[in-house]
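Quick one: structure for this chain?
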Amino acid sequence: MLMLENVPFSSRYPIELAHGKYASFMQPIGPEPNWLGALAKDFRITEKSVKTLVIIVFTSLGESVEVHPASDFLELLMKAR
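Got it. Here's what it folds into:
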């Protein structure tokens, strides 16, 4: 996995956020076989954090789509940690 400080538009982590603030993390997804486990480990996924997880997909057309992950994906993420 690439370190996130080398990924454009990503916030550095770990990061402490005040109430109402947010951070953005770009996660490269490539041929690594266990990218989900690496994601769960690197971001210290907890039951509380998955409840607020939002995924934003940037398309090649310059648009973005905000997605709240499906419950089965969140379950896989929790198991991978």
